[in-house]
Design brief:
Elements lengths: L3 H12 L5 E17 L2 E19 L2 E7 L4 H14 L31 H18 L3 E19 L4 E18 L4 E6 L2 E2 L5 H4 L2 H16 L2 E2 L3 E7 L6 H8 L4 H4 L21 E4 L20 E6 L2 E2 L6 H7 L7 E2 L8 E2 L3 E4 L6 H6 L3 E14 L4 E13 L2 E7 L2 E5 H7 E4 L4 E9 L2 E9 L2 E9 L3
Helix pairs in contact: 1-2, 3-5
Length: 460
């Protein structure tokens, strides 16, 4: 960690040339990955990354620089050069640092670095074997594990002095089913903010069998018919649609630039009254959780939409200045190479009153999207296009034949308004979210929901 004298001299250099706010962000990240293809180790990689980022504010403008050399002379030079790029005409005083300190948010029982690679490989071998044995149609398996230990230190000219250790682990499995003419894949990737004890929480063999079931089911499915119809989207990763089509549009990164469909809609009804949506960076062991955000602000539970009413945006320090809003503990970045900005943490539609059985039974005809895949979205308009990895038709209130090749097309605001049933089986799933501050771990989630009508892309 940097000494107080180094931090003080660096930030004083920034304030002495006109910046009204200065921040130092330092991190050391250890990363381990292991991958197994068809039951054999393909790669085992370990790495260490270290660096410091310096950010300066000049009212509503910001300058950012980063370096791997944390000696005092170099940090002072970067601060002065950054300040010179946007020189002001006032000298702001440097505040004394308070006693604010953070430890690891959630206790880690088994630090990943203390676990031998062969123990990790054993978990992957079990998963690969379980997927292969599920069906003779499974012709290839890919299993992997990732663990990241990130030590973060943040100090700024407002007197903040904080540090945190963040430990995350993730397991992933992909099973590929093949016929004479085609291939289909199934993929799952559970993870959490915890150490190797993650593997006491998840059953790698059962997870692998689920991925294999997805692949083999879709291999024999007919193509989905195209058209407008009710769509039931299952829990867990189904929440990716809200995350992408709506969540990004609620980030101050877009709101401050007037580049979101949700600008100037605070307090208005933007969704069905059965919809409540939350971003919560405090969830114990959540994939996107931490004690503080990447500006040193404690994370919090932010109710974005309550009973259809827009209640909050996700706000970072700089965009908060531009908007006249307080930060919501939502500032995140991939690493010291990126300036932070407002980002989601663990974002989900909250539980409703319906059971999954009631939702299916009350749907005469439609598409059941059991497992969602990736897609694309325009935050300015909310227009999206998402693939359905595992889908089924609903007929006469029952789940019927599997279908493949389905895509969901629409606009985020329209989908929010057309959700008429929300289940009581909230679940979250893990993913990586990309934006201007890099790729970060985020949870998406929801209970099962029904959208009255959506455009479903397919064949015919």
């Amino acid at each position: 960690m940097l000494t107080k004298s180094v931090v003080e001299n660096t930030l004083s250099a920034a304030l002495g040339t006109g910046a009204d706010f200065g921040e130092i962000y330092m991190e050391q990240t250890k990363r381990n990955t292991l991958s197994v293809v068809n039951g054999k180790v393909e790669a085992a990689l370990s790495g260490l990354d270290y660096g410091v980022g310096i950010r300066l504010f000049f009212q509503n403008k910001a300058i950012y620089g980063f370096t791997n050399d944390s000696c005092e002379k170099n940090l002072v030079r970067i601060a002065r050069e950054a300040a010179a790029a946007a020189r002001g005409d006032r000298v702001y005083p440097l505040q004394g640092w308070g006693p604010l300190n953070f430890a690891t948010k959630d206790p880690v029982r088994i630090m990943p670095d203390e676990v031998e690679k062969n123990r990790k490989a054993e978990k992957l071998f079990l998963a690969a074997e379980a997927a292969r044995k599920y069906s003779p149609l499974i012709t290839q398996t890919r299993a992997g594990c990732l663990d990241v230990t990130k030590d973060v230190f943040i100090a700024n000219t407002d007197g903040l002095w904080a540090e945190e250790r963040r430990v995350r682990s993730r397991f992933n499995i992909e099973a590929i089913a093949s016929s004479a003419t085609e291939k289909q894949s199934g993929h799952l990737g559970p993870g959490a903010s915890m150490g190797f004890e993650l593997y006491n929480q998840i059953d790698v063999e059962d997870t692998a069998r689920k991925a294999a079931r997805m692949a083999t089911t879709m291999l024999g499915a007919n193509y989905c018919l195209a058209g407008r119809m009710p769509v039931v989207i299952d829990n867990g990763f189904g929440g990716v649609i809200f995350h992408e089509a709506c969540g990004h549009s609620l980030e101050a990164t877009a709101i401050a630039r007037n580049a979101s469909v949700f600008c100037e809609k605070m307090g208005q009804q933007i969704a069905s009254s059965v919809v409540t949506a939350i971003d919560d960076g405090t969830i114990p062991y959540g994939w996107g959780s931490s004690a503080m955000d990447d500006e040193g602000t404690p994370t919090q539970r932010n109710v974005l939409i309550e009973n259809g009413i827009l209640c909050s945006y996700l706000v970072d320090k700089l965009n908060g200045r531009r908007m006249g809003s307080k930060t919501t503990g939502s500032s995140r970045r991939e690493s010291y190479r990126f300036a932070p900005t407002s980002r989601m943490t663990n974002t989900f539609i909250d539980n409703g009153l319906s059971t999954p059985e009631e939702i299916i039974a009350n749907t005469e005809f439609g598409l059941y999207a059991k497992q969602m895949g990736g897609g694309s979205v325009d935050p300015a308009t909310g227009s999206f296009n998402f693939a359905v990895l595992e889908g089924y038709m609903i007929r006469n209130g029952k789940i019927a034949e599997p279908v493949r090749g389905a895509t969901l097309i629409g606009k985020g605001m329209e989908v929010l308004q057309k959700i008429d049933m929300v289940g009581n089986n909230l679940a979250r799933a893990q993913g990586m979210c990309g934006s201007i501050s890099g790729s970060i771990p985020t949870d998406v989630g929801q209970p099962m929901i029904r959208v009255q009508e959506m455009v479903v892309g397919g064949r015919g």
